Amino acid sequence: MHHIVPASPTPVRVLSFGYLHSTPPAAELVLDVRRYLSDPARVRDTGLLDSDGRDPAVQDAVIATPGSLATLLALRIFTDGYPAHKPLTIAIGCAGGRHRSAALAELLTSELLADGIPAQVHHLHIHLPRVLHDTDDTAPTQQEGHPR
Predict the structure, then answer these.
(1) Interior CA angle at 115 toward 110 and 116, to 5°?
(2) pLDDT digit string (tens) for 105-128?
(3) What is the 3 state secondary structure string of 48-99?
(4) pLDDT tens digit sequence for 2-57
(5) Which residues are CB-contacts of 70 (< 8 A; sequence separation ≥ 6)?
(6) How far is CA 123 from CA 22, 90, 110, in A?
């Protein structure tokens, strides 16, 4: 008699990126949070502008944003329903890839690991200079050190 050994789950790859730096990476699920999650870095007196989503203060600010908990829940429901033996990449994008997307990627990865689901986080644009904007997240007006 043969015993079937269940395959170990394939690690979930969670990517953060910035739409102002490139097109979305290849992924089974791409999430654009620019229009519905406010950017904590826009509030200049919070001190978050020079931080990024790996910083607990940025994560706290993002998670306090209406819609962010529901987003994490939806991502968890998606990962829980995805076949464990198939590769899964989730790409989360915001304007610059430094605050909202990076924080959500960190938080999702932490949740997955805490639940015993193998996961890896990769930040594609977190190291790039921040991009400052007017009111539209998709229209940069100034890049750090490069006045318009």
Answers:
(1) 100
(2) 999 999 999 999 999 999 999 998
(3) CCCCCCCCHHHHHHHHCCCCHHHHHHHHHHHHHHCCCCCCEEEEEEECCCCC
(4) 555 455 678 899 999 999 999 999 999 999 999 999 888 776 666 677 788 999 99
(5) none
(6) 13, 12, 14
